[in-house]
Every structure is written in structure tokens, then in C-alpha cells.
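Worked Example 4.2. Consider the chain below.
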Amino acid sequence: MLNIGQIEEGFVLDHIKAGKSMSIYKHLGLDKNEDTVAIIKNARSDKMGRKDILKVECDIDTLDLDVLAFIDHNITVNIIKDTESGMGFVQIDGIQTRELLDLEPMPERKMIFVGNSITSGNGMYTDSVPCDAGTWFDQNKASASYAVLTANALNAQYHLNSSSGIGFYSSCCGTTFNMYSAYDKYNHSNNSINCDVAALNYNPDVVCVCLGQNDGQLANDVFDTNYTKFIKKMRSYYPDAQIICMSSPMA
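Applying the procedure from the previous section yields the following C-alpha cells:
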């Protein structure tokens, strides 16, 4: 098994013809900046025999990949953004291509995880910045959260709709909106950009809701009324899904 390491934000360029990675490294101007770059040459490949891989840890809006189309249109570009939308929103404006390839088969089982920092994987990554250092989001790693680990263990597709500090009714840490209003928004940093959930055509088998840790001490009737209201919203979007209401050690 080939292990090229994990990054929080950047690109992994795969299926590069063996021996061509250094040329791409220079064409992308990576020899002129201070981004962290890993180059793997002559890796074994079932499809290509041998291939190169280029991994770049950088802000994804700072690297222009247009040149790749002129070098080799078979290169696979993996965009890595392993943090919350509130820590840097990503929007793809468009892609130009000569053809669309068929997707590889996806797992049949589908899951959605709704929650706060626990679901987002906040505090799960200390390889680069240790605990009690840096800013509050430096240890965020969505792929290490219980949600992703659970979905992978069950061989399921997954969506995470989560944001640190958010609650189903009231939120903390400066967040001025709740998950009831933010669920159908793309950008959780400012509760903006409406999302047509039905148009996504993603119909989960299971919806896991882990909320309430940031809502503070609510009166029982306020908690019950607003939690029920939120679950009813989930049911309206996903009438056939099993909905699992979860707590956590922080509750």
C-alpha cells in the first residue's frame, strides 16, 4: 500500500506519466514558492504500470492548474479541503473538458452526519500544530471525525453538514445563526448561498444528528420544541431515511 500522507488543503496530482513529475513541478511554478510539496516517482500502478504523484499543500485558490491540460489530459486532480466551510469557503466556478468519463462505482449505502465541531473533526489533527498552539481551527481534520470513520467502516457514501459552535436552536463562540437556518446553506461561515437540497438528489439511508452541545442550558419545553422542529425539517428532506439522534460525552 502506497502512503503519500495527508494534507488539510491543497492538491494531489495522480496518474502522471512516470518521470514527468519534475516537469510539472516547474511548469506550476512550485520551484519558486514555499508550498510544501511531495513528489513520488515510479509508483506502482495497475492501470499505468508506473506513475508519478505530486502532492501540494497550499491554499487551493493560489495554484493555476490550467497548464495540466496541455501537458497531459489524463492526470487526475484531487482537490483536498479537509476543514469546515467556515474556515475557507470553496467554490468551483466551472470546468472545461474534452469529455466526461464515467465515475467509478460508489457504495450503495448513503449517510448524512449533521452536527457541530465534534462532527467536523475539530481538534483531531495535531501533526502540524500541537494542542494549545496556533488558532482554534488549526487542529481541524474532517476526515478523522467519527462521522467519516463510521461511514468508511460501513462502506457508505457520506455528507457532513456541520459547523463548529453551532446549535439546533442557539449557538456559541460568536455564531449568530443555528443549524435550522444553516442546514440548507452552502456557506456556514456567514449562513449564505441557498442550497436546493432536493436538487442534490442525495437520498440517504441514515441521517445522524449530533447537536445540542452548544445550545446551553435550555428549559425542557424550549429544548423539546426546537429539537423536534429541527428533526421535522430533516424528515421533510429525507422522508425514507432512518434518523439517529445522538448525544456525546460533551453533552
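The CA atoms of residues 13 and 77 lie 5 Å apart. Strands lie at 9-17, 36-45, 49-57, 76-81, 109-115, 156-162, 185-187, 192-194, 206-210, 242-246. Compare this with Example 4.1 before moving on.
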